[in-house]
């Protein structure tokens, strides 16, 4: 399988998703449009992944590639190919599908509880998880459910945590790809920012990583493997 990956920021880890892709010997095409504006030609790929970033999904003045990426994600999902938007990626896909982006109104950080909707057990990806599960979050923005999308998960802070559009177009607000080594690296890279997001989180990290983080790692890998299984379906 050939998978196009779009990164939206300089420090991007593929985490649990990278594990699942490498297990299937996926051939990766990597794009960084925040640096050069280039986006993949999806006729060459079987699936599209768009990771997170610090920008908003509507920051067109600073990042003029965003409308094109929103259209590419929506068009790829409409074509029936597997699409995955994570955090900012989910917000961009929602934009491309006609949802409303809502900025700065839904702040979550760290390992947080997410609840599946009644539609989730029958979904080939979210059905891999229990009704409630801890997963990593780092966002302030949210969005409405895209027209025609299946609502799969919510939290107390953000009503739309996961949705599916069409056969395999998934938007996941939460960072299921984040495993404990990745969270530790973010803590090293962004200590001041994380302290402002969640005072005391650095001190609590060893305890959280050994408990909630370990459970979230397993859920994240299960989600990653389930989504990868949709490629080429």
Write down the secondary-structure element order. Answer: EHEHEHEHEEEEEEEHHH
Beta-strand percentage?
15-25%
Strand order of the largest sheet: 2-1-3-4-11-10-9-6-7
Q: Structurally, how many domains make up the residues?
A: 1
Query: Poorly predicted ranges (pLDDT <50, ≥5 residues)?
Result: none
Q: Mind summarizing the main beta sheet?
A: 9 strands, mixed
How many separate helices?
7
User: What name goes with the CATH superfamily?
Assistant: Class I glutamine amidotransferase (GATase) domain
Rg from Cα: 16 Å
**Ends: how far apart?**
11 Å
DSSP strand tally: 11
Oligomer category: single chain
Secondary-structure content class: alpha/beta
**Arithmetic mean pLDDT:** 97
Helix content: 25-40%
Which CATH architecture is right? 3-Layer(aba) Sandwich
CATH class assignment: Alpha Beta
Which short descriptors sum up this protein?
233 residues, alpha/beta, Rossmann fold, nine-stranded mixed sheet, 7 helices, 23% strand, globular
């Amino acid at each position: 399988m050939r998978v196009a990956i779009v990164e939206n920021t300089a420090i991007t880890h593929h985490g649990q998703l990278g594990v699942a892709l490498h297990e299937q010997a996926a051939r990766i095409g990597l794009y960084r449009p925040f640096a050069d504006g280039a986006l993949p030609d999806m006729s060459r790929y079987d699936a599209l992944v768009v990771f997170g970033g610090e920008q908003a999904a509507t920051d067109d003045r600073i990042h003029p590639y965003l409308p094109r990426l929103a259209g590419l994600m929506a068009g790829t999902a409409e074509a029936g190919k597997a699409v995955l938007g994570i955090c900012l990626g989910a917000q961009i896909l929602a934009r491309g599908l006609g949802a409303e982006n809502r900025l700065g109104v839904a702040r979550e950080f760290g390992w947080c509880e997410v609840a599946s909707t009644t539609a989730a057990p029958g979904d080939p990806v979210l059905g891999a998880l229990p009704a409630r599960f801890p997963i990593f979050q780092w966002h302030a923005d949210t969005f409405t459910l895209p027209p025609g999308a299946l609502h799969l998960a919510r939290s107390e802070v953000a009503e739309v945590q996961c949705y599916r559009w069409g056969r395999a177009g998934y938007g996941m607000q939460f960072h299921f790809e984040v495993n404990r080594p990745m969270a530790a690296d973010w803590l090293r890279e962004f200590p001041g920012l994380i302290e402002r997001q969640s005072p005391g989180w650095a001190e609590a990290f060893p305890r959280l990583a050994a408990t909630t983080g370990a459970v979230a790692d397993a859920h994240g890998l299960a989600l990653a493997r389930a989504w990868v299984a949709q490629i080429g379906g």
